Structure formats: C-alpha cells, structure tokens
C-alpha cells in the first residue's frame, strides 16, 4: 500500500494533479476493483440482495471503523483534534449526504427493489462529484 501511495504521489508531483483528485479517482477505483469482481460474481449466482448489502455496508463499515477507532483513541488520550474544512471537504460531505439520502429514499420507496436507473443515477452523481472536486482543487470553483 505504501508503494502504491508513493507511485500516485510521484504521478501527482510530475503532472501537477492535486493529490485529492488522484485519491478520489485512481486510488478509489483501484481499491474497489476487488469488491466489483466479488459483487458481480455473487450477483450472477442470484444473490442480488447480498450484493446490495455488501455494496452499501462495506464502505459504511470501513468509514465507521476507519474513522471511529482513531477518533476514539484520540479522545481517550485527550489529544486536541481540530478538523478543518476546505472546499473539497465541503463538496465531499455534501455529495455524501445527498447520495445517502437518495439511496435511503429509493430503498424505502421501491421496497429495496432498486432498478437500473438507480445505478445510472449513482454513476452520474459520482461523475458530477469528480467534476466538482477537480474544479475546486484547481481553484476554478471556490466554495469557501
């Protein structure tokens, strides 16, 4: 993992691409390839509900445990922690909230029977998200 991060950092330094953009595109896609292959294989076997649970629960578990444990350790040690919000972080929080709200509403309205349009809408939301992050990281779009 350290070598992959170093290679991505080198690519960012040589091309001038912001590390946030590289993290949200290249590293995120590389990190999700294993899940994509496993979920597709399970879906072909007919366990679509299991795939939906894995697709929604896996990243949620990673976020909660990945952020929860360090923040818990920091609070137990009583180390002051400051969180700064820049424009990219604001975009990430906004899109995360909107996608979670969209997913929750779709699950409730369609009784967990999500269709192809839902997937297309999420892909379009991700593409829009990446465009906003690239514009914000290159200082074309200024939020704060």
Automatic annotation (TrEMBL):
<dbReference type="InterPro" id="IPR044880">
    <property type="entry name" value="NCX_ion-bd_dom_sf"/>
</dbReference>
<feature type="transmembrane region" description="Helical">
    <location>
        <begin position="88"/>
        <end position="109"/>
    </location>
</feature>
<keyword id="KW-0812">Transmembrane</keyword>
<keyword id="KW-0813">Transport</keyword>
<feature type="transmembrane region" description="Helical">
    <location>
        <begin position="121"/>
        <end position="142"/>
    </location>
</feature>
<protein>
    <recommendedName>
        <fullName>Sodium/calcium exchanger membrane region domain-containing protein</fullName>
    </recommendedName>
</protein>
<keyword id="KW-0106">Calcium</keyword>
<keyword id="KW-0472">Membrane</keyword>
<keyword id="KW-0050">Antiport</keyword>
<dbReference type="GO" id="GO:0006874">
    <property type="term" value="P:intracellular calcium ion homeostasis"/>
</dbReference>
<dbReference type="Pfam" id="PF01699">
    <property type="entry name" value="Na_Ca_ex"/>
</dbReference>
<dbReference type="GO" id="GO:0005432">
    <property type="term" value="F:calcium:sodium antiporter activity"/>
</dbReference>
<dbReference type="GO" id="GO:0016020">
    <property type="term" value="C:membrane"/>
</dbReference>
<keyword id="KW-0406">Ion transport</keyword>
<keyword id="KW-1133">Transmembrane helix</keyword>
<feature type="transmembrane region" description="Helical">
    <location>
        <begin position="50"/>
        <end position="76"/>
    </location>
</feature>
<keyword id="KW-0109">Calcium transport</keyword>
<dbReference type="InterPro" id="IPR004837">
    <property type="entry name" value="NaCa_Exmemb"/>
</dbReference>
<feature type="domain" description="Sodium/calcium exchanger membrane region">
    <location>
        <begin position="2"/>
        <end position="134"/>
    </location>
</feature>
<dbReference type="InterPro" id="IPR051359">
    <property type="entry name" value="CaCA_antiporter"/>
</dbReference>
């Amino acid at each position: 993992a350290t070598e992959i991060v170093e290679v991505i950092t080198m690519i960012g330094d040589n091309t001038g691409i912001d590390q946030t953009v590289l993290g949200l595109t290249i590293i995120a896609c590389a990190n999700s390839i294993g899940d994509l292959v496993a979920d597709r294989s399970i879906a072909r076997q007919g366990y679509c509900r299991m795939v939906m649970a894995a697709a929604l629960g896996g990243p949620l578990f990673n976020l909660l445990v990945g952020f929860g444990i360090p923040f818990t350790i920091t609070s137990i040690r009583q180390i002051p922690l400051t969180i700064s919000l820049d424009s990219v972080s604001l975009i990430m929080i906004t899109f995360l909230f909107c996608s979670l709200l969209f997913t929750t509403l779709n699950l409730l309205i369609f009784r967990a029977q999500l269709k192809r349009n839902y997937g297309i809408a999420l892909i379009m939301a991700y593409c829009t998200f990446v465009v906003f992050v690239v514009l914000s990281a290159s200082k074309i779009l200024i939020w704060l």
